[in-house]
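Researcher: Structure for this, please.
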Amino acid sequence: MTTFAKELGIPFFPSLEKILTSPMDTALICSENSLHYDYTLACAYHKRHVIVENPLALKAEDAKRMILTCEENGVKLFVAHPVRYAQTIQDLKRIYEAGELGEILAIVATNHGKNPGGWFIDKELSGGGALLDHTIHLVDLSKWLFDFEIESIYARTNSHNYDDIEDSALLHIHFTNGVFMSLDTSWNRPDNYPIWGDAAMKIVTDKGTIYVDGFGRRADIYLENKPAMNHLYENDMNTTMLADFKRCIEEDLPAPVTGLDGLYPVEIANLAYQSAHTKKIITLNR
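Model: Predicted structure, token format:
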């Protein structure tokens, strides 16, 4: 790690305490999922704003404590839901709010990806596999884009490579307004796949269908004697998200993706695991 820091010319801190006593104002937490809770509370106690990678926490009660602790210490809590910032998703939101999409009847959603490896496949550190890793974004979009409320969830998981962690999962979600969504969250992309995966929705409406991929619009490139390549030609959603978070800190504006936004998909993911374990439909009490 020290070599990495030297190569990039950035400071290296040997401990969390050293970081939190440095003259920074914001911490970006990209640690193992199991450490999000401890690190967020430590930052809040040191009066540092917090940007947390998703999922916000592994347990809903931990997420609630994180939200409350940040509020009590007067610091902002941002949760990294970058797919909201993809240009394709921004365009979809504009079309929907203008009433041009029509009445939504069903959604076929996918959040496929490559197996991340490392701590992601250590259940003690990650808290779960493909279901937890890839449920967050599409569940968040169903709420943020359309304000849909979930009525029930049925989930099944499978593992082709591990004993205690799933690498494929399928969720069937019914919303209170009668709309149905299927969500495939599998790590099913091979290592040589041109891009990481997708965060996509095929939306069926009374006017037809529309397909949107949160990874953005891209060109597929095929060259002789070379592997297929994808060229993404829109602004990177992570960069756009972080720029927005930075602006909110500098101008003292409300967080655009709040702790409550981060809590919601954590609750849903835990209910999905409950469904997968019991093999029963879980109905939400709201």
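Researcher: Any notable elements?
Model: The chain has nine helices and twelve strands. The chain has a mean pLDDT of 93.
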